[in-house]
Design brief:
The protein has 13 helices and seven strands. By secondary structure, the protein is of the alpha/beta class.
């Protein structure tokens, strides 16, 4: 008997035989194959539409490719993966990091399997996966949304260049409200690099937000061209910020969070560290800085596996020695 993998032609012969209601032993004899091989092939590739040779061949090819690329997890590589996962990188991001830093070419499914094995053994690495923290998506509100902001410039007047995300310096900003709407943090994200700035707010007014925006962004004024906000009244002192930072400020349409999608997504990532109901009055500046570092050194798949800090400042951070 020939125990090599079935060919594409043989799979189409199997389909024809099944349509003639031939049993599996008869098919095995016809193809000079083991009955077990035919049984396994039919069982593995039969769905609601019956046995499908084309899909069976494609899946077999994928299995061969995956097997040929399998890499043994050495103790050193395993430790590197553990360190990256503990820094809240997803398996995909960990793979991107290992590849771009010349460590190894690894498939993310290998890491998922490693985490599953660790969990079954009583380990806790799986708790670092972000999907465990997902909840129903909400619109991160502002303190006060009634009324209008004086002299607000609509996003419709924002240069088309901003939409291309081709340059550093076009930012999106918003607030994340804490427990009982009595505390908040303020987030700013660069659209191109995803570099993120997080500021703790002590009060609930536009004056404090403007003061802290100027203080946070002034040192990097050369990397600020525009800021886009929603219509929360905490951004009412936009003209003072624009003058102090020499920046153009625009406002999205009401109830159009997708116009600041990058900021909305980043706020979702921040919720991994500060879940809904967090009292930001009890959050320290050190905790804020820790989250900023985690976000800015996390390789992003949408940015070719590069870190926001690498794109924004031109220098990557080695996560395995940092």
């Amino acid at each position: 008997m020939n125990y090599q993998q079935l060919t594409n032609d043989e799979r189409y012969q199997i389909k024809a035989c099944l349509q003639l209601h031939m049993n599996q032993i008869g098919i095995a004899n016809l193809l000079n194959r083991s009955p077990a091989t035919i049984s396994r092939e039919i069982k593995r590739n039969t769905g609601k539409r019956g046995y499908r040779p084309k899909q069976a061949n494609e899946l077999a090819t994928m299995r061969r490719l995956t097997a040929s690329k399998s890499i043994k997890l050495t103790p050193e590589l395993r430790q590197d993966i553990i360190e990256l996962i503990k820094q809240e990188l997803s398996p995909e991001q960990a793979c991107d990091y290992l590849i771009t830093h010349g460590k190894t070419k690894l498939h993310h499914e290998t890491i998922y399997r490693m985490l599953l094995q660790d969990k079954r053994a009583g380990g806790t690495l799986y708790k670092h996966l972000r999907h465990l923290h997902k909840s129903h998506r909400k619109r991160y509100g502002s303190y006060e949304r009634r009324g209008r902001i004086k002299n607000a410039v609509s996003i419709e007047q924002r240069p088309e260049l901003v939409n291309t995300r081709s340059r550093i310096g076009d930012w999106e900003g918003d607030t994340i409200i804490g427990k009982n709407k009595k505390s908040a943090i303020y987030t700013l994200v660069d659209r191109k690099s995803l570099y993120t700035v997080i500021v703790k707010l002590n009060g609930k007014n536009a004056t404090e937000l403007a003061d802290k925006t100027i203080k946070a962004l002034k040192p990097m004024s050369s990397k600020i061209h525009t800021i886009t906000y929603d219509n929360g009244l905490e951004f009412a002192e936009h003209e003072r910020m624009a003058k102090a930072l020499d920046v153009d400020i625009y406002f999205a349409h009401p109830y159009s969070s997708w116009e600041r999608g990058i900021n909305e997504n980043t706020n979702g990532l921040i919720r991994q560290y500060f879940p809904k109901g967090t009292d930001f009055n009890k959050v320290t500046n050190s905790q804020i800085e820790f989250v900023m570092k985690r976000l800015n050194t996390r390789p992003r798949k949408t940015r070719g596996g590069k870190q926001p800090v690498e794109l924004f400042l031109g220098k990557a951070v080695d996560l395995l020695t940092a």
